[in-house]
């Protein structure tokens, strides 16, 4: 639905899904990007409102993605890297490169930790 040129038509479906699963990081990310993409259109009515709403849902997504799991296990390095990338990419989309570049650099700096975690996970599965 969000792939079409009518971003706002996807929002009611996303909000229905959010009502069923408010802690679903994926739904929060979709809502955030829908608001931001809608706000960036040339003929939007209230650009600031859309960006603010989008950033609010983006922060909720980020918090959900980097929060430790209920079992007490900390967030995976790959999830943190993903959340940082999506945040930096959003800053880039908004033209805020002074915020995006440090975010991208942070993502690249995490690569070694993500690879190490993936290798460790592969060893545990192979045991």
From TrEMBL:
Origin: domain of life: Eukaryota
Protein name from the UniProt record: Transcription factor TFIIIC subunit tfc4
InterPro entries xrefs: Tfc4/TFIIIC-102/Sfc4
GO BP terms in the entry: transcription by RNA polymerase III
Annotated Gene Ontology cellular component terms: transcription factor TFIIIC complex
């Amino acid at each position: 639905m969000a792939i079409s040129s009518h971003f706002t038509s996807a929002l009611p479906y996303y909000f229905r899904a959010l009502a069923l699963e408010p802690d679903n990081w994926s739904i929060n990310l979709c809502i955030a990007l829908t608001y931001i993409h809608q706000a960036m259109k040339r003929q939007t009515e209230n650009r600031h409102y859309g960006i603010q709403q989008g950033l609010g849902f983006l922060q909720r997504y980020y918090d959900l993605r980097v929060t430790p799991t209920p079992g007490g296990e900390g967030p995976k390095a790959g999830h943190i890297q993903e959340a940082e990338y999506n945040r930096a990419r959003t800053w880039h989309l908004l033209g805020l490169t002074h915020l995006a570049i440090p975010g991208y650099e942070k993502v690249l700096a995490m690569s070694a930790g993500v690879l190490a975690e993936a290798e460790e996970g592969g060893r545990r599965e192979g045991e």
